[in-house]
What we know:
Elements: E1 11-14, E2 26-33, E3 44-51, E4 57-65
Antiparallel strand pairs: 1-2, 2-3, 3-4
Amino acid sequence: xxxxxxxxxxxxxxxxxxxxxxxxxxxxxxxxxxxxxxxxxxxxxxxxxxxxxxxxxxxxxxxxxxxxxxxxxxxxxxxxxxxxxxxxxxxxxxxxxxxxxxxxxxxxxxxxxxxxxxxxxxxxxxxxxxxxxxxxxxxxxxxx
Length: 144
């Protein structure tokens, strides 16, 4: 008896019969068979997308399995996307009132420091601990 061939685009249901790694059965869509990877006789490496219950790809996986243990589910008829009927005109729903935005932080103006420097009005809106400017740190000697 010849082993079944795995082909790109094929959907497989993998359980313990395909490999011991599938404690929980999964469904995959084969991307490609990795023929250049060496395996035991009757085993293959595949790249595949793991499918969820709806049939959407949720994860890409590289799997080592025995094709003889893989089950091929019956083909599903192509389902056309369902369209919902247009809803009759309804009264607009009321939305909850939005809370007012919080005021921006303001730092109280400090008195003039030694050397006559004062806090500019722009710097007064910067949160405490933040350094106003272009984001560069002055690295000259003697300045913080």
